[in-house]
Amino acid sequence: MQDPESHHPPGTLSRRGALECMTWAGTGLLWSLGGGLPRAVGLTRALAAEEPPAPFTFLQISDSHVGFNKPANPDASGTLREAVAMIRQLPEKPAFIIHTGDISHLSKEQEFDDADQILRDTGVPLFFVPGEHDLLDDDQGRSYRDRFGRGTRGAGWYSFDREGVHFIGLVNVVDLKAGGLGNLGTDQLAWLERDVAGLSASTPVVVFAHIPLWTVYPEWGWGTQDGARVLACLRRFGSVTVLNGHIHQIIQKVEGNVSFHTARSTAFPQPAPGTASSPGPMKVPAGELRKVLGITRLNLIHGREPLAIIDTPLAG
Amino acid sequence: MPSPHTLPRRFRPWLVAAVSVPILALAAGRGAPASERTGTDPVIIRIDNFTFGPETLTVAPGTTVTWVNGDDIPHTVVAQNKLFRSRTLDTDDRYSFTFEAPGEYAYFCSLHPHMTGTVVVRRPTN
Ligand SMILES: [Cu+2]
């Protein structure tokens, strides 16, 4: 239900196309999908769709939880390998991959080693931000930063530019406050303000972090306390795409010039907000698991807004 | 894929030691009926479904409280006043802390901060 399938190739509807609204019964949550917005399509359709040539494609993967071996997925490394195999078979080679955190399950050296080995096989550069599962070592993130966060600032934030797009990786899983949500902190927000100060408003911006930067479901901690300050900082930009993980399912919405999107996990699904007693790993029937795991492709077609987002399950 | 670090808990000698630690649960104070436990019962707070249970626990000074994680996801137990902080508790891991001084101790999970609980330490009335 959280994975509406589109029968339109991305980008074929106008931005003002009809809005389809979906409601989670009983939760009061509302989210919208519309023409020109991020859309989810099945693998066969994604591979077969005749899209205009996309000059610039990158991927998002998330929540690989290497080391997880509980009933919801006894082999999280195996499904990550399947995701990598799928990436290697994509018709257009992505420029790079953004991993939005929870690379490992318990921040163990062996888990980071395994993840590193598996992800290397993609053959493309990777950019990371940490999830809360990546900062569990005794030094609270030293292992992650030494391995995946070299050259970053603070707990691991940074920015870079590719193809005229400004990419910002943020960390919202550090120094969380009792009773609260994800947290960025004043140092990071001050850095962000300086980072975007010199950019022209026509620069497309992609901002990525582990926990959703907008409030998805506070009862389960799915949001970022000071996330609104990021959005305030980016309000003047004509195209902002926000990519998050953490909730192991696709949820998307658009507000003005900002497209929000959360990616599937490659390890295990979590329930839709409010549909279970807790947000813990959801065990699905045998044969269904790979339909709720997957990867995300993003295509930038210059002169067309916003970025086209295509979610592809590992199977089905 | 199980790594050498994820052996089943029951094979870990330190866990056996943790279970056998004598736990001095003194008579419960007001707000916690004495019938709920005897002087030798371990005082346990379970972590299930991203919730501490009971959310508020009242004990006498000197009581050792043990948290047990029953979830498939790791959690922590962190005092808001920084008095105590567990390491990361994987499934079935335990953490114990002995409360000496009367007071209210608010704590939370540093990974999932919407998870909160309180231990009230109070002298028995008689
Ligand atoms: Cu937790």
UniProtKB/TrEMBL annotation, chain A:
<dbReference type="GO" id="GO:0016787">
    <property type="term" value="F:hydrolase activity"/>
</dbReference>
<dbReference type="Pfam" id="PF00149">
    <property type="entry name" value="Metallophos"/>
</dbReference>
<feature type="domain" description="Calcineurin-like phosphoesterase">
    <location>
        <begin position="57"/>
        <end position="249"/>
    </location>
</feature>
<dbReference type="InterPro" id="IPR006311">
    <property type="entry name" value="TAT_signal"/>
</dbReference>
<protein>
    <submittedName>
        <fullName>Metallophosphoesterase</fullName>
    </submittedName>
</protein>
<dbReference type="InterPro" id="IPR051918">
    <property type="entry name" value="STPP_CPPED1"/>
</dbReference>
<dbReference type="InterPro" id="IPR004843">
    <property type="entry name" value="Calcineurin-like_PHP"/>
</dbReference>
<dbReference type="InterPro" id="IPR029052">
    <property type="entry name" value="Metallo-depent_PP-like"/>
</dbReference>
From TrEMBL, chain B:
<dbReference type="InterPro" id="IPR052721">
    <property type="entry name" value="ET_Amicyanin"/>
</dbReference>
<dbReference type="Pfam" id="PF13473">
    <property type="entry name" value="Cupredoxin_1"/>
</dbReference>
<feature type="signal peptide">
    <location>
        <begin position="1"/>
        <end position="27"/>
    </location>
</feature>
<dbReference type="InterPro" id="IPR028096">
    <property type="entry name" value="EfeO_Cupredoxin"/>
</dbReference>
<feature type="domain" description="EfeO-type cupredoxin-like">
    <location>
        <begin position="34"/>
        <end position="121"/>
    </location>
</feature>
<dbReference type="InterPro" id="IPR008972">
    <property type="entry name" value="Cupredoxin"/>
</dbReference>
<protein>
    <submittedName>
        <fullName>Amicyanin</fullName>
    </submittedName>
</protein>
<dbReference type="InterPro" id="IPR035668">
    <property type="entry name" value="Amicyanin"/>
</dbReference>
<keyword id="KW-0732">Signal</keyword>
